Amino acid sequence: MSTSENTQFLWSRLLFLSAIAILAVYGLFFIYSTGYIGDDYPVRENWQKQCIWLAVGVLCAWFAYRSTPDNYFWGQFVAWGYVGSLIALILVLIFGKSIGGARRWLDFGGLLLQPAEFAKYFTLLLVAKVLSMDGNRWRTLAWTGFLAALPLLLIVIEPSYGNALSLLPPVAMLVLVRYAPQRVFHWLLAVGTALVLLFTATLTWLRSPHGRNLVEHYLQNSTESSTFLRPYHVRRIRNYLDPRGDWNERQSVIAIASGGPSGKGYLQGNMKSLGFLPRTVAPTDFIFSVIAEEMGFLFGTLPILCLYGVLLLLALFWGSVAPTRMGELTCVGMATLLFTHVAVNIGMTVRLLPVIGLPLPLLSYGGSYTIMTLLALGTILAIPAHADAPADVRPSSTHVLNLGKLLRIQIRNE
Q1: What is the Cα–Cα distance from 154 to 84, expressed in whole angstroms?
Q2: pLDDT at 243
């Protein structure tokens, strides 16, 4: 690698690390804010716990960064991590702690861990490893479907439909990046865009009187003992279709709108301080609403979106110049997973999407997801650290998508 390329990767890594640090510090400040209701009252200790989770996550990210994603040790770590996450998901169904009608957590003496988060991480790494191997395409696709279906099924049984749904886009993207020819990929992008528009139009129609009546007819025919739809799922669907929404959704929209361009000031948000936006969800699902209310669009919403954009663009860029196919797929898979969380969480807070409980990377309070996020970011950061691999290690059959000229995303043709 030339001196100029070394300098380029050094500055890009510094920018990546800076975006991570700013988002993590931002998250700490506003997790503190969600626990603050006035100078005369004690602040909830969530921000202190988040400091611990961030410290653990940084150690895990350092381990991922120091491990080359293509060596023998890393392959064993991924395989055993995948098996361990499956075992943990099974243990959750037997011994897990039930909260709100869902059994998703393992309780270690008050320390709650959510195995579904780590299962997503290891599943994507193992799928990327399998797809990076040369061999029969259909056999590889069959193995990919099997490896992704096992954790997906266990997560659905908990149930945790949000986590299950968040695993689908990155797996689909890995398959497309690995096998779709350039021309087909362009068509799929066009079809995907059309489907997003159709999905948005469908959601809009479902909120109309006729659409709500149709959905209500279906919900009335479904029993509360259904293995797929739990009572709280039915309640969330009804709340989403109701033009007013449920209490949390209404207060979230009001908080975002009331923040305006410059916000009310740090610790001055009254939606969470007065309890309109419940303290149980403000630091997790609706942390974005608190930031928007207190810092506004210019100093809260816009900087956060820009920082996420930096992480996404750099991850995709590094994937395009990765020395191996495994490195490329790893960057694409992890970036898609994090972007899915960002898109869904922000969509929930503005009532564009139903509330399905996906946290916001580096901002939302939570141990398991914070550690998984930093693990994923550390894994992404490891790719450019090994971008000086010999030329004969790099995949030879590549072509650049028109859409990815800026990012240099490469699709392999067999």
Answers
A1: 13
A2: 66
87-100 average pLDDT score: 86
Of 109-113, 119-123, 131-135, 237-241, which range is least confident? 237-241
Is residue 254 within 8 Å of residue 276, measured between CB atoms? yes
The CA angle 363-262-339, to the nearest 5 degrees, is 30
Token pair of 120, please?
């997503």
Residues 6+ apart with CB under 8 A from 26: 291, 304, 362, 363
User: What Å distances lie between residue 402 and 125, 186, 222, CA to CA?
Assistant: 27, 8, 47
Task: Tally the C-alpha atoms within 13 A of residue 121's C-alpha that lie toward its C-beta.
Answer: 27
Element (H, E) at 242: none
Q: pLDDT tens-digit profile of 270-296?
A: 888 888 888 888 999 999 999 999 999
Query: What is the Cα–Cα distance from 242 to 238, expressed in whole angstroms?
Result: 6
Q: How many residues does the chain have?
A: 414
Residues 6+ positions from 371 with CB-CB distance below 8 Å? 53, 56, 57, 60, 117, 118
Q: How many CB atoms lie within 10 A of CB 309?
A: 13
pLDDT surpasses 60 at 211: yes
Beta-sheet strands, E only, within 78-176: 97-99, 102-108, 111-113
| Domain residue limits, the chain | 3-179+302-412
Closest of 287, 277, 251, 224 to residue 26, by C-alpha: 287
Assign 409 a pLDDT band (cuts: 50, 70, 90): very low
